[in-house]
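In keeping with the milestone schedule agreed at the kick-off meeting, the structural modelling team has produced records for the first pair of proteins. Each record is given below as a sequence line and a structure-token line. The laboratory manager (R.T.) confirmed that both were archived under the project's standard naming scheme.
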Amino acid sequence: MSDHPDVPVAPVEAFEPPYYVAVFTTVRTQEQSGYRETNARMEDLVKDIPGYLGMDHAQTPGGLGITVGYFRDADALTKWRDNAEHRAAQKRGRAEWYETYTLHVAKVERSHGFTRA
């Protein structure tokens, strides 16, 4: 999750379907040593995946985190899933940073957006 207060808040744009989303919902543990650095590295790393479209994040005051990654096709999502550094971060996340998580992957068939003028 980005902790950049100077970055404008806006959702990832609506893309022309079909495309894929990976919805990662988490509750983190108290132990967060190294999490921010690893998360920042993952945000930089995923940008190099051909077909990566963007990412949205949200965090509730109660601790529920939601990250939605957008990918042009299933191949792009598979490349991200199989990335060695990403795999290592997943393993560390299960060992240290997450109390619980869910991952939902879906094909988007409809998408639209709105921005106030």
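The second protein of the pair:
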Amino acid sequence: MTASEGGTVLIVDDDREVVRTYRRYLDDTYTIREAYDGEEALDELDDDVDVVLLDRLMPGRSGGEVLDRIRDRGYDVRVAMVTAVDPDFDIVDMGFDDYVTKPTTRDELRRTVEGLLELDQHAVDVRKYHSLLVKAAALREGKSTYELNENRAYTDLESRISDLEATLDAEAEQLVDDSRFVATLRAIDTAATPEDTDG
């Protein structure tokens, strides 16, 4: 899911006015789900959710606990903590992808969601790149240089690898410049067991 294709955003906050405000900021571009406490957030979460905007301080199950449950359940979803709590050293071990301190503006929230969707696209491209490299290596192992050079499918494969390398370089540069380097690494780590996205 890329930012240009929209996506599904789950807004989690016990303050209903905050949820309504964030919905106004985002619902012209994204599909919005709402939750007003941690349990409801976990009930609303499924594989269709691309981004979670998660309040940290909520009655009952805290945002940190919800985040732990999300990661324990293995959901491949990007999570931004959107909270009035100033960051402290305890955030080092938390599995979020971005941290936004309230109050936040429309532009900041939209940039956050868009950036996290771009991060997801980067992870997809990493998996695809790995898959192509595996195919090329297998062919080089079993075929002569002449056979490889004379085969149109292989030369197309090499071209796709080269194009994707350029795309990944551009994406990585943008994500690092956008202060999401740690989240980029987490996305790549998720891609460490690649799916063969090209059949």
